[in-house]
Fold this protein.
Amino acid sequence: MKNPHLPIAVFVLLLCFTSCENLEEKLQEKVNLINEKAGSLDSLMNKELEKINSLDSLVNKELDKVQKLDSMLNREIQKVSSVDSLFNSTGSKIDSMVQDKVERIKQIGN
């Protein structure tokens, strides 16, 4: 006795296999698309990291220049302080000499 539902069951199984193959192809296409997008994103991130590294290097170079300039300014400030001290010392000596001369003139005048 032949089962009347057998051809229908075979048809349903064939339909399922065909649908599964179509789903597998679509799934593979989606996975490939995701991989392509991930690769593009990775490449973009690498480019941005290169820009950041370049900027970091530039900032470090400029920071070195600022530190050298700061060191030069400190040396010049020390020189100015030394000259200022010399002027103050010389000014004090001149004031003292003038004061002595004024005292002598007063003594002679009296």
Summary: The helical segments are 6-109. The longest helix spans residues 6-109. The chain is about 95% helix and 0% strand. The mean pLDDT is 87.
